[in-house]
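Good morning N.,

You mentioned wanting to compare the apo and holo forms, so I went ahead and generated the holo version with 3-methyl-2-oxobutanoic acid. This is what I fed in:
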Amino acid sequence: MKPSPNSLREAKAIGRRLASLTAYDYPTARLLDDCGLDFVLVGDSLGMVVLGHPDTTHVTMADMLHHTRAVVRGVSKTLIAVDLPFGSCSTPELAVQNARLLRDAGADLVKLEGGRECLPSIEAILCDGIPLIGHLGMLPQRVIEERGYHIKGKSGPEADRLLADAITIDQAGASALVLELVHAPLAEAISKKLICPTVGIGSGNECDGSILVLHDLIGLFPWFRPKFATARTDVATAIQQAVREFSEEVKRSAN
Ligand code: KIV
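and this is what came out, ligand included:
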């Protein structure tokens, strides 16, 4: 049986750290479902690592729904969080409409990028009874205006803003908060301050849990891997080796 989304906050209350990875399709979702993760994320990173876009701003609600349904078919024990993609939360009404679509497709929680400027949408989704994960720090959906992927919260004013955003999202009732590329000392300070768990990616080791893009962990996207991610295996090479062996064997065999 699946735990409730409340289990994420409960984990922090008893000092248990959270582990999460992305899943975008049925077979990986099914494999991950047996691995003791606290939630799988149908991340809009799928736009880059599965659909071949240069960044996540190209991902649509239709993409997210399609991949969510595939993941839902493969998962029975693990919570499923799904990203609200670029442009899907520009008004609270639109945010609720899209969060409901993701919930109806099988999402247990939705994830929304942004701070206090998104509070009306965050509150509207939570008031509608849909559990939500916040996302602060480097926001991939704003990569064009921010001109790249940079560490956040090194300067005093930016750190103050991020801390205030984090407290607001926690107090609104988020189940967890992803901190992406947040300066490690700030990520630690935010984690100590919040009741909800922080889940870090490229934000040091002192968050309440950790999340990675699956492809970075297993070496399935060899063309780019962020510096903070260590690949534990090399699936890309294994695939190419198997395919080359197959191809050579077929061509060698007599008719
Ligand atoms: O889209 C995604 O995969 C994410 C993670 C990097 C946290 O948001």
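The pocket of 3-methyl-2-oxobutanoic acid is lined by residues 22, 41, 43-45, 83, 178, 180, 201, 211, 213 (CB under 6 Å).

Happy to go through it together on a call whenever suits you.

Best,
F.
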